[in-house]
Amino acid sequence: MRREDVRVELEENRVLRVSGERKAAEEEVVEGEKWHRAERATGRFWRQFRLPGNAVLDRIRARLEDGVLKVTVPKVAEERKKQARVIDIAGDSAASGGDIKATKADTEYMIE
């Protein structure tokens, strides 16, 4: 395949569309040669891929080398998940090793 025969497009809603057309290559015909099977050498094709939300659309690159199309879709670098931080609880009951009990004032709620 040649570069002119393939098209890579970014459509609405983050859809990447690869399309193209294979054209028949002229082959030498040898007199007296018979074919038992021949591969299809012509035709149109297309494929669509919905890209994820973390794809960087401005940096998509495509490369055609030796008949192989390679499309690179970079993604946004994810932040490393932060470790949970342990918070010390201060109070008289915690220091003495006793149970913490709620007072009536701590448990009253205003309902309107």
Question: Secondary-structure map with pairings?
Answer:
Blueprint: E1 6-11, E2 15-22, E3 43-50, E4 61-65, E5 68-72, H1 92-96, H2 104-107
Antiparallel strand pairs: 1-2, 2-3, 4-5
Overall pLDDT confidence: 81
> Major sheet, described briefly?
3 strands, antiparallel
State the helix count: 2
**Percentage of residues in strands:** 25-35%
Bulk shape: rod-shaped
Q: Would you tell me which CATH topology of the domain at 3-72 applies? A: Immunoglobulin-like
Q: What is the first-to-last residue Cα distance?
A: 74 Å
Order of helices and strands: EEEEEHH
Please provide the count of β strands. 5
CATH architectural name of the domain at 3-72: Sandwich
Radius of gyration, taken over Cα atoms and rounded to an integer in Å: 33 Å
Q: Which structural class is indicated by helix and strand composition?
A: mainly beta
Low-confidence stretches: none
Largest sheet: spatial strand order: 1-2-3
CATH class of the domain at 3-72: Mainly Beta
Helical content class:
under 10%
In short:
Belongs to the small heat shock protein (HSP20) family. This protein has 112 residues and is mostly beta strands.
Can you describe this structure?
- The chain is mainly β and 112 residues long.
- It has a domain at 3-72: Sandwich (Immunoglobulin-like).
- Helices cover 8% and strands 29% of the residues.
- The protein contains 2 helices and 5 strands.
- It has helices spanning 92-96, 104-107, and strands at 6-11, 15-22, 43-50, 61-65, 68-72.
- The protein has a 3-stranded antiparallel β-sheet with strand order 1-2-3, with no helix packed on it. The protein has a two-stranded antiparallel sheet with strand order 4-5.
- Strand 4 (61-65) and strand 5 form a beta hairpin.
- The longest helix has 5 residues, at 92-96.
- It is rod-shaped.
- The mean pLDDT is 81.
